[in-house]
Amino acid sequence: MSITQDARLQPEAATATPLNGLAQADFGNPAAWVVAFILVIMPLIANGFFLIEIFGTTMILGIVALSLMFLAGYGGMVSLMQLTIAGLAGYMTAVLGASGNANISLGWPWWLATPMALVLATLFGTIGGALAVRTEGIYTIMITLAIASAFYYFTNQNWVIFNGHTGINSVVTPHFWGVDWRADVPFYYVILVVAALCFGAVSYLSRAPFGLALQGVRDNPRRMAALGFNVNAHRVAAYAFASFLAALGGVLQVWNYHQISPGSVGVERAIDILIIAIVGGITRPIGPFIGALIFVLLRTFTLDFLVAIGLDGNRFRLLIGLGFLVIVLFSPDGIVGLWERWRRRGEGQVQPGGDRHG
């Protein structure tokens, strides 16, 4: 049976999960269009710092966390190697392209190095996913965590390809049509377009035959197998798609900072992606971007505040951890889930005509 076949699945999948309607509602929400308009005109109202360090970084982290959200929310698979995939894409962009480390980088033009980096990172994530889908639950998490940890130590100790703990600096970014695409405004729009495409792709795929089948696999893999669906094939395909999303975020990340090092792919960074996805909401495509905005704001301004009062700036992670515990305790679906419950409660209390419902 084809991986996208859904002749017998759609009734079950449509009733098994409300995520399809929620994802579809994002595009009909007036508030979403207001936010989109503000993001489009952001260069007119924000300086370079807020444009790139806040909103640009938010969208880049949001793209990587979106890949985790797709796997966990629609496939029921928690992967801790999404940042590793992004890191490999970033490393390959630096190695295949041009950088300040001429003895390592091959000097390919960006239009050749970037697609090759995306292909290699997607292939790496797909192979890792093929290993992970053979297990379930905590074992899947541990396999992806082991891959992330192994990649960190490999990049930290390998000098021939990855330049060891020093990393690769002064990575050359695209410059064509007379435009420096790493300049603040052009690069912001590049990030915005990529983030919008990723968001739209995930929202669309959640309602497509493949997305419905994947959600059926998440809810009842035995029933799906009995219906003739290849459960592992759907899961591996989900990893392939999520890997491509993460790879896009990794390329944007290395263009953003012009460098990449093992510190960018450390295990604690991989945990940050998980926190971002859960805090924002693992059931909606918009959740990872909300979680990323909260994370970036805390990391940027709380760190400076702690240093100003004489405390270790790294303690901002303590605040993030406390916030994570509070959100998970009161709203397992994150900020988005909390907002949905508040909205439904408000709509349910007062109806037209003054009727009240408990």
Automatic annotation (TrEMBL):
Location relative to the cell: Cell membrane
Transmembrane regions listed in the UniProt entry: 31-52, 59-88, 108-131, 138-155, 187-215, 236-257, 263-282, 289-310, 316-339
Topology in the lipid bilayer: Multi-pass membrane protein
GO cellular component terms listed in the entry, alphabetical order: plasma membrane
Example of a GO MF term: branched-chain amino acid transmembrane transporter activity
Record's keyword terms, sorted: Cell membrane, Membrane, Transmembrane, Transmembrane helix
UniProt cross-references to InterPro entries, sorted A to Z: ABC_transp_permease, LivM-like
Main location: membrane
Name of the protein: Amino acid/amide ABC transporter membrane protein 2, HAAT family
Naturally occurring in which organism (per UniProt): Bradyrhizobium lablabi
